[in-house]
Every structure is written in structure tokens, then in C-alpha cells.
């Protein structure tokens, strides 16, 4: 069984100090659990007041553009050509389908001392502000390439019938044996967050959110300072695993897809390996230098994506 956070948190307990008052100690001990309980109550109130689904009172989104691609780049990169290749890949795909793009750098956001990987959450929220009428936001990590220009996100991934065909129901949300599982009766129209799993757990390098009030709530909850203060071992990844297990408001809108749907890997050691025809490939856990560097991994696929894009 997976526990929500104690087993995945780096802990450095303070030295024992004599207590002068039992009440302050109790307050310190229960402060964070009480705060987490409060967040859960607020989420439940929101869930009940919204009827657990999209309502007619929510602002209608025109779907222009239908999708926004979001990628956060490292500020310092030893390979400018590699970065240009990634940006060119996103731009060509977006131009072909009339999508928007948001390219950001880690330094664009004040993360309050949190690890740089949290910038993906802030950038996705930023995209919703910049493109308020976009229907979907697809966050895709820097170390990845879109490979199939024919596939549209709104159809191939987020289409109602497509989601109902491929979403994995009754699946432990944190592998291998979380007692919390994806809903067995989920409908495609109810899905607002799409993600995959790899051998480590929820794979946050590629995910899609349906724009709207729920997405704002979700991203703001994910980035909540209280969760970031827990210093989870894998930062935003373990925070998300905690949220989907403890908050039905999030779980009720979550669909976990087969990994290759949006998140195939260039090598099989961490998850499902890319095959021709998949929408994208990620160089998961690639390195800065050497034969397994991100730039070297990209070389294996760059000619292929450019040839494919030029032929369609």
C-alpha cells in the first residue's frame, strides 16, 4: 500500500527540546494536518457546489485556439541548437493545426525557493491566462519531440469517444498497489485532466488539462504553498500523487491513459517505448552530456520528425 506522503518525504527531525507548555506543542504537531483537512473541506464544498461536473454557470470557452502547447526551458543550456530544434518542432506542429504556444524559461517565475520542476505547473496556469478561450492546454517537457503531425490533440487524445475507448479504469493511481483507483464509470465528457504512468508513478512530463474553472482550481491546489513546503522527494510528482489519492474533487476528473498515448519514451528502461505513429516521444531521464545526453537522444528522432512534417 502507498501512503500519501510520509514514505516519500525527506525528513530531518529537529533536536529534542524541553517543552514548557503542552498546548503550543500540540498546536505545532497538528497544524499541517489541520490545514490539509481544511483544504479537503474546501475542495469538497467546491465539488458539491459545482455538482461534480461542468455547469451552465461556467464561462463558455470558444475553443480558439483549440490547444495551447506549453514547454518550459532551462535558462542555461550548453546546446542552443538543441533548444532551437525543440522550439521549431512545437511551432511547426502548432502552426499546422492552429494551436497556440507558450515557451517559458524557469527564471520567468518566482517559485519561492521551490525546485525548478514546479515551473511546469505555473507555466500551465500562465497559458490559461494568456489564452482564456483555449479548450485544452498540453504541457510537454523540454526533452521531447512531437512526432506525428497528422494527429490532433482535440481528436486523437481528448475526443469523447476516444477517451472512453482508451482511458484505463479501476487502475491504482499510484502503482503498483494504491487502494485509490481511477473511476470505473468515468465518461469522456467528465475528464478534465489526462496523464499517464511510467515505472516510477504518475508521469508529469506530459499532461493535458481542459481549460475552465476546474482546471484553475486544480492547478492552484497542486501549487499550493502548503504542499510545496512538505519537500516531497520528487517535488510536483509526489505532490500530485498525494492530491489524487486524497481529494475526490481531482480524482473525479482524472483519466490515466496508456503511456504511448501522449508520453512514449525513447528508451524502454523507464516505461513504454516509442513506436512509429505515436504522437510524441520523450527522452526521459536523459543527461546533459555523453551518449545518453538529451541532444544525442533528439538526434535519433529529429530527421524523422522533420521529414514527417514536410510530407504532410
Automatic annotation (TrEMBL):
Domain of life: Eukaryota
GO cellular component, one term: mannan polymerase complex
TM spans (from-to): 31-49
Alphabetical UniProt keywords: Glycosyltransferase, Membrane, Transferase, Transmembrane, Transmembrane helix
Positions of region (Disordered): 1-21
Recorded coiled-coil stretches: none
Pfam (any one): Glyco_transf_34
Any one GO biological process: protein N-linked glycosylation
Family, as annotated: Belongs to the glycosyltransferase 34 family.
Name of the protein in question: Uncharacterized protein
Species the sequence originates in: Monosporascus ibericus
Amino acid at each position: 500500500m502507498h501512503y500519501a506522503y510520509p514514505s516519500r518525504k525527506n525528513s530531518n527531525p529537529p533536536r529534542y527540546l524541553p517543552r514548557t507548555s503542552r498546548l503550543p506543542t500540540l498546536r505545532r504537531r497538528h497544524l499541517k494536518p489541520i490545514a490539509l483537512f481544511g483544504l479537503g473541506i474546501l475542495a469538497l464544498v467546491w465539488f458539491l457546489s459545482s455538482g461534480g461536473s461542468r455547469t451552465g454557470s461556467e464561462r463558455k470557452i470558444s475553443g480558439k485556439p483549440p490547444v495551447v502547447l506549453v514547454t518550459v526551458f532551462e535558462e542555461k543550456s550548453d546546446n542552443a541548437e538543441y533548444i532551437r530544434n525543440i522550439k521549431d518542432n512545437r511551432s511547426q506542429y502548432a502552426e499546422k493545426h492552429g494551436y497556440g504556444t507558450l515557451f517559458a524559461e524557469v527564471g520567468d517565475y518566482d517559485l519561492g525557493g521551490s525546485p525548478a520542476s514546479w515551473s511546469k505547473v505555473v507555466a500551465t496556469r500562465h497559458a490559461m491566462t494568456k489564452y482564456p478561450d483555449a479548450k485544452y492546454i498540453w504541457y510537454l517537457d523540454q526533452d521531447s519531440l512531437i512526432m506525428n503531425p497528422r494527429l490532433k490533440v482535440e481528436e486523437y487524445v481528448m475526443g469523447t469517444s476516444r477517451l472512453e475507448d482508451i482511458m484505463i479504469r479501476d487502475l491504482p493511481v499510484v502503482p503498483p498497489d494504491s487502494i485509490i483507483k481511477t473511476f470505473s464509470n468515468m465518461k469522456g465528457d467528465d475528464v478534465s485532466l489526462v496523464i499517464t504512468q511510467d515505472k516510477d508513478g504518475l508521469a508529469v512530463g506530459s499532461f493535458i488539462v481542459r481549460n475552465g474553472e476546474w482546471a484553475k482550481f486544480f492547478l492552484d491546489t497542486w501549487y499550493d504553498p502548503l504542499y510545496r513546503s512538505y519537500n516531497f522527494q520528487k517535488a510536483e510528482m509526489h505532490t500530485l500523487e498525494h492530491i489524487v489519492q486524497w481529494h475526490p474533487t481531482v480524482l473525479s476528473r482524472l483519466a490515466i491513459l496508456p503511456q504511448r498515448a501522449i508520453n512514449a519514451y525513447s528508451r524502454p528502461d523507464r516505461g513504454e517505448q516509442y513506436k512509429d505513429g505515436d504522437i510524441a516521444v520523450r527522452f526521459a531521464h536523459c543527461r546533459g552530456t555523453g551518449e545518453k545526453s538529451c541532444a544525442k537522444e533528439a538526434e535519433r528522432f529529429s530527421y524523422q520528425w522533420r521529414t514527417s512534417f514536410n510530407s504532410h
